[in-house]
Amino acid sequence: MSKKYDCIFLDRDGTINTDPGYISKLQDFKFFDFAVAALDMLKTLTNNFIIISNQSGVARGLILEQDLIKINEYIFEEFSKNNLGLLDIYYCFDHPDNSSGRRKPGVEMFVEASNQYCLDLSRCLMIGDSKTDILPAKVLGMESMLVLSGEGEKYKNSFYEKEKPDYISKNLMFGAIELIT
Ligand SMILES: [Mg+2]
Q1: For residue 150, how far is its CA from the centre of ligand 1 (angstroms)?
Q2: Which one of 30, 81, 120, 151 has the lowest number of neighbouring Cβ atoms within 10 Å?
Q3: How many angstroms is it from 172 CA to the middle of ligand 1?
Q4: What are the E-state strand segments in 61-134?
Q5: What CATH number has the domain spanning 7-180?
Q6: What predicted TM-score, i.e. pTM, was given to this entire model?
Q7: Residue 65: phi, psi to the nearest 5?
Q8: Is 13 assigned a catalytic role?
Q9: pLDDT less than 50: residues of the chain
Protein backbone atom coordinates (compact mmCIF):
# COMPACT_ATOMS: atom_id res chain seq x y z
CA MET A 1 0.00 0.00 0.00
CA SER A 2 1.35 3.41 -0.85
CA LYS A 3 2.14 5.72 2.01
CA LYS A 4 0.20 8.85 2.71
CA TYR A 5 2.73 11.28 1.24
CA ASP A 6 4.78 11.01 -1.97
CA CYS A 7 7.33 13.14 -0.18
CA ILE A 8 7.70 15.22 2.94
CA PHE A 9 9.59 18.43 2.18
CA LEU A 10 11.56 19.85 5.07
CA ASP A 11 12.91 23.29 5.64
CA ARG A 12 16.37 23.11 7.20
CA ASP A 13 17.29 25.85 9.70
CA GLY A 14 14.85 26.12 12.60
CA THR A 15 13.01 22.98 11.48
CA ILE A 16 15.44 20.05 11.67
CA ASN A 17 18.39 21.94 13.17
CA THR A 18 18.96 24.94 15.39
CA ASP A 19 19.08 28.30 13.67
CA PRO A 20 21.83 30.52 15.06
CA GLY A 21 21.78 32.44 11.74
CA TYR A 22 23.92 31.89 8.63
CA ILE A 23 25.48 28.54 9.49
CA SER A 24 28.80 28.66 7.71
CA LYS A 25 30.72 25.83 9.37
CA LEU A 26 29.89 22.21 9.97
CA GLN A 27 30.60 22.55 13.69
CA ASP A 28 27.81 25.14 13.94
CA PHE A 29 25.27 22.77 12.43
CA LYS A 30 23.31 20.98 15.18
CA PHE A 31 20.30 18.78 14.57
CA PHE A 32 17.57 19.36 17.14
CA ASP A 33 17.88 16.53 19.66
CA PHE A 34 14.40 15.32 18.68
CA ALA A 35 14.98 15.49 14.92
CA VAL A 36 15.97 11.91 14.18
CA ALA A 37 13.23 10.42 16.37
CA ALA A 38 10.66 12.73 14.77
CA LEU A 39 11.81 11.87 11.25
CA ASP A 40 11.68 8.20 12.16
CA MET A 41 8.00 8.63 13.01
CA LEU A 42 7.34 10.63 9.84
CA LYS A 43 8.91 7.78 7.90
CA THR A 44 5.73 5.80 8.54
CA LEU A 45 3.96 8.36 6.31
CA THR A 46 6.46 8.59 3.44
CA ASN A 47 9.48 6.93 1.87
CA ASN A 48 10.98 10.21 0.76
CA PHE A 49 12.27 13.35 2.39
CA ILE A 50 13.64 16.36 0.52
CA ILE A 51 15.20 19.42 2.16
CA ILE A 52 14.37 22.78 0.58
CA SER A 53 16.39 25.64 2.01
CA ASN A 54 17.08 29.30 1.38
CA GLN A 55 20.75 30.02 1.99
CA SER A 56 21.15 33.68 1.15
CA GLY A 57 24.31 33.68 3.29
CA VAL A 58 26.09 32.51 0.15
CA ALA A 59 25.02 35.58 -1.87
CA ARG A 60 25.80 37.73 1.16
CA GLY A 61 29.35 36.38 1.22
CA LEU A 62 28.85 34.93 4.72
CA ILE A 63 28.83 31.26 3.69
CA LEU A 64 31.18 29.53 1.28
CA GLU A 65 29.54 27.05 -1.06
CA GLN A 66 32.25 24.49 -0.25
CA ASP A 67 31.28 24.66 3.45
CA LEU A 68 27.63 24.25 2.56
CA ILE A 69 28.58 21.13 0.59
CA LYS A 70 30.31 19.72 3.70
CA ILE A 71 27.19 20.39 5.75
CA ASN A 72 25.11 18.65 3.07
CA GLU A 73 27.35 15.60 3.19
CA TYR A 74 26.94 15.44 6.94
CA ILE A 75 23.14 15.72 6.65
CA PHE A 76 23.05 12.94 4.04
CA GLU A 77 25.23 10.74 6.28
CA GLU A 78 23.00 11.28 9.31
CA PHE A 79 19.83 10.52 7.37
CA SER A 80 21.41 7.45 5.83
CA LYS A 81 22.81 6.20 9.15
CA ASN A 82 19.32 6.41 10.62
CA ASN A 83 17.69 4.77 7.63
CA LEU A 84 15.78 7.89 6.61
CA GLY A 85 15.30 8.25 2.90
CA LEU A 86 16.68 11.66 2.01
CA LEU A 87 16.25 12.03 -1.74
CA ASP A 88 17.87 15.40 -2.19
CA ILE A 89 18.71 18.79 -0.79
CA TYR A 90 17.74 21.89 -2.76
CA TYR A 91 19.28 25.24 -1.95
CA CYS A 92 18.78 28.77 -3.16
CA PHE A 93 21.69 31.16 -2.72
CA ASP A 94 19.80 34.26 -3.85
CA HIS A 95 19.90 37.47 -1.88
CA PRO A 96 16.33 38.52 -0.97
CA ASP A 97 16.85 41.90 -2.68
CA ASN A 98 17.62 40.20 -5.97
CA SER A 99 15.94 36.84 -5.89
CA SER A 100 14.64 34.47 -8.52
CA GLY A 101 11.55 32.28 -8.27
CA ARG A 102 13.70 29.62 -6.65
CA ARG A 103 14.02 31.46 -3.37
CA LYS A 104 11.13 30.59 -1.04
CA PRO A 105 8.34 31.76 -0.97
CA GLY A 106 8.93 31.14 -4.69
CA VAL A 107 7.78 27.72 -5.83
CA GLU A 108 10.54 26.78 -8.26
CA MET A 109 12.65 24.54 -6.03
CA PHE A 110 9.53 22.48 -5.29
CA VAL A 111 8.65 22.30 -8.98
CA GLU A 112 12.20 21.19 -9.82
CA ALA A 113 11.98 18.46 -7.19
CA SER A 114 8.59 17.26 -8.38
CA ASN A 115 9.86 17.06 -11.97
CA GLN A 116 13.10 15.38 -11.02
CA TYR A 117 11.50 12.73 -8.83
CA CYS A 118 8.00 12.47 -10.37
CA LEU A 119 6.25 13.62 -7.22
CA ASP A 120 2.57 14.46 -7.10
CA LEU A 121 2.70 17.68 -5.10
CA SER A 122 -0.93 17.30 -4.07
CA ARG A 123 0.30 14.24 -2.17
CA CYS A 124 3.18 16.04 -0.45
CA LEU A 125 3.64 17.86 2.83
CA MET A 126 5.90 20.83 3.55
CA ILE A 127 7.16 21.41 7.09
CA GLY A 128 8.91 24.64 8.04
CA ASP A 129 9.27 27.35 10.65
CA SER A 130 8.63 30.35 8.42
CA LYS A 131 5.81 31.92 6.48
CA THR A 132 8.01 31.54 3.40
CA ASP A 133 7.78 27.76 3.85
CA ILE A 134 3.99 27.74 4.02
CA LEU A 135 3.13 30.11 1.16
CA PRO A 136 4.64 28.01 -1.67
CA ALA A 137 2.94 24.92 -0.24
CA LYS A 138 -0.39 26.73 -0.48
CA VAL A 139 0.26 27.85 -4.07
CA LEU A 140 1.18 24.30 -5.10
CA GLY A 141 -1.70 22.56 -3.32
CA MET A 142 0.51 20.80 -0.82
CA GLU A 143 -0.32 20.20 2.81
CA SER A 144 1.69 22.36 5.18
CA MET A 145 2.85 22.42 8.77
CA LEU A 146 4.30 25.40 10.61
CA VAL A 147 6.61 24.39 13.45
CA LEU A 148 7.13 26.90 16.24
CA SER A 149 10.79 26.04 16.73
CA GLY A 150 13.26 28.38 15.07
CA GLU A 151 11.37 31.49 13.94
CA GLY A 152 7.94 29.85 13.85
CA GLU A 153 6.52 31.60 16.90
CA LYS A 154 7.00 34.91 15.13
CA TYR A 155 4.86 33.87 12.16
CA LYS A 156 2.13 32.01 14.03
CA ASN A 157 -0.43 34.81 13.79
CA SER A 158 0.71 36.31 10.50
CA PHE A 159 -1.42 34.30 8.10
CA TYR A 160 -4.52 35.41 6.24
CA GLU A 161 -7.31 32.85 6.39
CA LYS A 162 -6.46 31.35 2.98
CA GLU A 163 -2.75 31.11 3.80
CA LYS A 164 -3.10 29.25 7.07
CA PRO A 165 -1.04 26.08 7.42
CA ASP A 166 -2.93 22.80 7.83
CA TYR A 167 -1.03 22.12 11.02
CA ILE A 168 0.75 24.24 13.60
CA SER A 169 2.97 22.31 15.99
CA LYS A 170 5.43 23.16 18.71
CA ASN A 171 8.25 21.44 16.85
CA LEU A 172 8.97 18.57 14.48
CA MET A 173 8.47 15.98 17.22
CA PHE A 174 5.05 17.28 18.28
CA GLY A 175 4.15 17.58 14.61
CA ALA A 176 5.13 13.99 13.91
CA ILE A 177 3.08 12.76 16.86
CA GLU A 178 0.08 14.78 15.66
CA LEU A 179 0.38 13.38 12.14
CA ILE A 180 0.73 9.72 13.04
CA THR A 181 -1.95 9.51 15.74
MG1 LIG B 1 13.73 27.91 8.61
Answers
A1: 6
A2: 81
A3: 12
A4: 86-92, 124-128
A5: 3.40.50.1000
A6: 0.97
A7: -60, -35
A8: yes
A9: none
